[in-house]
Write a structure and sequence with these properties.
This protein is of the alpha+beta class. Helix content is about 10%, strand content about 25%. It is built from 1 helix and 6 strands; from the N terminus they run H-E-E-E-E-E-E.
Length: about 110
């Protein structure tokens, strides 16, 4: 799941969901995940492309990890590219968003 092409991983997750292997859901920002595993898939820019990056949370938060408004993944983890969706913004946070992480900045 790390470093995959977005379309390939989304196709795999769709197939696993259809076969009832996992229950895939999408959070408010469009990021897919498997709450039962505590897994959220994020995007990361590398060189000339965007690849996937899994984020795994503890069992206590797994049941709501794709809901980033309620889940326990720190807000600063969501900075950067979002899973592509029709009409959705390409990255988060928007320019006028007030963050809650003080002087923290994402790595370059």
């Amino acid at each position: 799941m790390t470093g995959c092409v977005l379309d390939d991983l989304e196709r795999f997750l769709g197939h696993a969901h259809a076969c009832e292997v996992v229950d895939v859901s999408y959070g408010p920002r469009g990021n897919p995940g498997v709450d039962g595993l505590g897994l959220v898939l994020r995007l990361q820019e590398v060189a000339d492309r965007v690849v996937t990056r899994p984020v795994v949370v503890g069992r206590a938060w797994a049941d709501r990890c794709t809901d980033d408004w309620e889940g326990a993944i720190p807000e600063c983890e969501w900075v950067g590219r979002m899973w592509p969706g029709a009409g959705a913004p390409r990255s988060w946070p928007p320019p006028d968003h007030a963050t809650h992480w003080d002087s923290w900045r994402p790595p370059l």
